[in-house]
Design a protein that fits this description.
Helix content is 33%, strand content 19%. The radius of gyration is 23 Å and the shape is globular.
């Protein structure tokens, strides 16, 4: 068991009462600028410990892939379902033959993808070699990537060139982009956190299956389908749904834009459903009020419906104020194919548009918990799309969103 010096300890174990093997851990925190950071991380890994460190996408949680007990600890710490394999991060592409086999028909595509996107935010699924333990991947394939962040690559290289790494979060929770976010979820569950500041990307890697030709896009991420196609030509995009999540102040124009998108998609013969705040509160969440707890419960129920529709290949348009970043992050994590649209509009303009007089009543103190007046609104920090509705017409905002969906392979582009 690894114990930190008192000055370097991350607070108490997480609220879930992290208990691994019957013992609570004391998580050590070390700054990446410390010359001892990499040697310390390697010592912990070789001793069977778990180490979180930044990558070019999000913070990763690592174990030595050849140590079955360490990999099992990783699953336990994350509460990760056992059927989900753990990706392997490589320090350099030269380590790829150790862990993966490239089918002959896919050799040209893989070589092109590796040359163009490694190091970087592209994960390739390939056939695994006999060296890859069952604890890492139960099936016949393995997911591999070379991260672009030099700090991460140096640590992996020092540990032997290959590490089992997945996002440093509790399964189902937001992927962390800072050491503090890692500590809030995994403090008391893991041995060491290397604090390298905020991750430069913040968006998970794109995953491509290269076990057959042409390659198949399994997960959209930092690299768009169009970028992949420009390198390898034909690429199979699995038909799947998505959720456009419109967030912004009351009166910003969320519903108006969502209706324009709905009309365009139906005109193209595409499957689409719109979930609107006012409509949902007349049925699905009629029992809820407007306290923070009830707002969160409202979005939790909507998220569940959006997830089911998305999984059944429907384009879902969710237009909700959804004022809290943490709750939106949970929705993103649960839904998966989640596109955040920040409908930005100054408070004064939203109030000017208000024909119902709700803002006037809120300013007068007659309506409690009114977002933007007596209750906070937390704007998105990294939305996929921003619509400035004080400057754009609804048609211009809708066209921007349709263009994004086409460019990223969510809907077919029109000739």
């Amino acid at each position: 068991m690894l114990y930190s010096r008192p000055s370097d300890r991350v607070g108490a174990p997480s609220a879930r009462g992290a208990r691994l093997g019957g013992c609570r851990l004391k998580t050590e925190l070390i700054h990446a600028a410390n010359p001892e950071a990499t040697p310390r991380a390697v010592d912990v890994l070789r001793a069977g410990g778990l180490v979180a460190f930044p990558t070019d996408t999000v913070y990763g949680l690592a174990a030595m892939p050849w140590n079955t007990q360490a990999v099992e600890r990783l699953y336990e710490a994350k509460e990760r379902p056992s059927e989900r394999a753990i990706p392997l991060l490589l320090s350099d592409a030269e380590h790829l033959p150790r862990v993966a086999i490239i089918p002959p028909l896919c050799r040209e595509s893989v070589d092109k993808l590796v040359d163009r996107f490694w190091p970087g935010a592209l994960t390739l699924v390939l056939l695994k070699t006999d060296a890859v333990p069952e604890a890492v991947s139960h099936g016949t394939t393995v997911a591999v990537r070379v991260p672009a962040l030099s700090l991460a690559r140096a640590l992996i290289r020092a540990a032997g060139g290959v590490l089992a790494v997945t996002s440093a979060n509790i399964s189902g929770q937001p992927s962390p982009v800072t050491a503090e976010e890692v500590a809030s979820q995994l403090g008391g569950r893991i041995d060491l956190i290397v604090n390298g500041g905020a991750c430069p990307g913040g968006v998970p890697s794109t995953i491509v299956d290269c076990t057959a030709s042409p390659p198949t896009l399994l997960r959209r991420g930092a690299i768009a389908p169009a970028e992949l196609a420009a390198v390898v030509g034909a690429i199979h995009t699995m038909r799947q749904g998505f959720t456009l999540w419109f967030t912004g102040l009351s009166g910003a124009g969320k519903t108006t834009i969502a209706k324009r998108i709905e009309e365009e998609m139906r005109a193209r013969g595409l499957r689409v459903e719109r979930l609107d705040g006012d409509i949902v509160r007349q049925g699905l969440t009629r029992d809820l009020g407007f306290s923070k707890e009830d707002r969160d419960k409202n979005i939790e129920r909507v998220t569940f419906v959006a997830k089911l529709l998305t999984r059944n290949n429907v384009g879902v348009l969710c237009a909700f104020i959804s004022p809290y970043r943490a709750r939106r992050a949970l929705s993103r994590q649960e839904i998966g194919e989640f596109i955040e649209v920040y409908v930005e509009c100054p408070l004064e303009e939203c109030a000017r548009r208000d024909v119902k007089g709700m803002y006037a009543k809120a300013f007068a103190g007659e309506i409690p918990n009114f977002t933007g007046v007596s209750d906070p609104y937390e704007p998105p920090e990294n939305p996929e799309i921003v619509c400035h509705t004080a400057e754009e017409t609804p048609e211009q905002s809708a066209a921007k969103i349709i263009a994004y969906l086409e460019q990223h392979g969510y809907i077919p582009a029109q000739a």
